Amino acid sequence: MDKFIITGQKKLSGTVKINGAKNHALKVMAASLLTDQSFIIKKIPNIEDVLRMKELLRGVGCDIDETKNTSFTTKKVFNHVLDKKIVPRLRSSVLLLGPMLARNRKIILPHPGGCAIGKRPIDIFIDGFKSMGVKIKENFDHYSFGINTPLKGCDFIFNKISVTGTETMLMAACLAQGKTTLINAACEPEIAALAEFLNKCGAKIKGAGTPKLEIIGVEKLIGGTCEIIPDRIEALSFAILGVATNSKITITNCCTDHLAVPLNILQQIGAKMIITDNTITTLPHGPLLAKDIATHEYPGFPTDGQAPLTVLLTQAKGISFVAENIFENRFIYTDMLNKMGANIQILNQQKISIKGKTRLKGKNVESPDLRAGIAMIIAALIAEGQTEIGNIYQIDRGYEKIDQRLIKIGADIKRVK
Ligand code: EPU
Fold first, then answer.
1. Order of strands across the sheet with 212-216?
2. C-beta of 121 in contact with ligand 1 (< 6 A)
3. Which of 11, 44, 176, 276 could form a disulfide with 217 if both were Cys (CB 3.0 to 4.6 A apart)?
């Protein structure tokens, strides 16, 4: 398996361009199954999760043409059984439930299972589709979902806010009979962007980006061209990287409106930044200050920025507290930061304390999940000496050519077999 070898404390400077958002691209790709016409999708990031989604879509009948712009066309869904090797590697496979049930009325979903950050149950999806009239059977290693009639519009209340739950129900509701109302829906900008595009293709969705969505089902969607929005988590990761390494780095092609809360928090910690509508420039700063932070659904501080932020807080003077309110197992990387010299205590499953400022030293570490992986890269860039990061498939899942982009701004990072 590939790993990264990073020698820390190099001077970094320059410009990093943000790619299309993973968590928008995967959703639009899945939504392409809603119609027999083509979706042309621009600015899809070239990352492992996108490759897995392409494999999954091809497996059910989608023709993907990458000669010019990438187009996705599913004239006919010829297979309703999702690949059991791909589903456990790609949590977003559950997104296919919505379009497959709307278009094909049945789907076999191998058990997606948990991952490093949590158990990742699918009870919300099950309750949601039951409300639309779907019959669901749980078997030893898969779920079977089926309905003999078109999906029925319904009123559905999310007891817990779920991003892909909202998106999956939203996609299904586009072709359901009658009206669907989703209450306590997630408000992430990727959801609003998905709905905006589906409306261009003939859907009737109101309220996306707010907690209440109303969708009037239509008979058919047409094809269209969608440009993927900038990846706000990638932009935040690079902003934290710039602040943590005390460097002047300009991050372009981002939408800073989507990052209001995390950028405000970085400034309160002591980061100096010039922020425009679509760029962030991190500047050298004075001492950083400890802070208490809790992750929250959008527009709060994102759980996907929690691990990088914790690395930054190892460089802040005083005791910081970080509470993780979205996933139940998102502190496993803290052991590795402690191995590198951090002083982090897990107070309970949802809260850690970080005593800073600490000097970090290069060690052999792993990338347990995507965002912990980028956090390890940031830690390695600050650390004295050499750090080896294993399991970097996890980082490649969401950050395109991260090594090459870091080399361009002066990092000493090598990808080795
Ligand atoms: N949950 C349930 N039951 C369900 C579904 C979710 O209990 O049926 C729980 C989850 O276990 C979690 C909470 O609800 O505790 C919120 O999970 P959510 O469903 O919102 O997460 P998700 O949709 O699976 C998306 C992103 C994640 C991001 C979260 C939270 C995609 C493809 N993934 O996941 O992104 O962390 O929302 O914002 O959009 C990443 O990009 O690294 C990543 C993990």
1. 155-157, 179-183, 212-216, 204-206
2. yes
3. 176
Mind listing the pLDDT tens digit of every residue in the chain (417 residues)? 899 999 999 999 999 999 999 999 999 999 999 999 999 999 999 999 999 999 999 999 999 999 878 999 999 999 999 999 999 999 999 999 999 999 999 999 999 877 777 778 899 999 999 999 999 999 989 999 999 999 999 999 999 999 999 999 999 999 999 999 999 999 999 999 999 999 999 999 999 999 999 999 999 999 999 999 999 999 999 999 999 999 999 999 999 999 999 999 999 999 999 999 999 999 999 999 999 999 999 999 999 999 999 999 999 999 999 999 999 999 999 999 999 999 999 999 999 999 999 999 999 999 999 999 999 999 999 999 999 999 999 999 999 999 999 999 999 999 998
Measured between alpha carbons, how far is 320 from 331 in angstroms, rounded to an integer? 15
The answer to whether the predicted template modeling score (pTM) of the entire model surpasses 0.90 is yes
> Which of ligand 1's atoms lies nearest the C-alpha of 125?
8
Active-site residue set: 115
For residues 335 and 369, the answer to whether their CB atoms sit within 8 Å is: no
Contact 314 CB / ligand 1 (< 6 Å): no
Cα distances (Å, whole numbers) of residue 207 to 78, 122, 184, 214, 385: 33, 24, 12, 6, 51
Q: Which of 117, 160, 329, 350 to mutate to test the pocket of ligand 1 (most atoms within 8 A of CB)?
A: 160
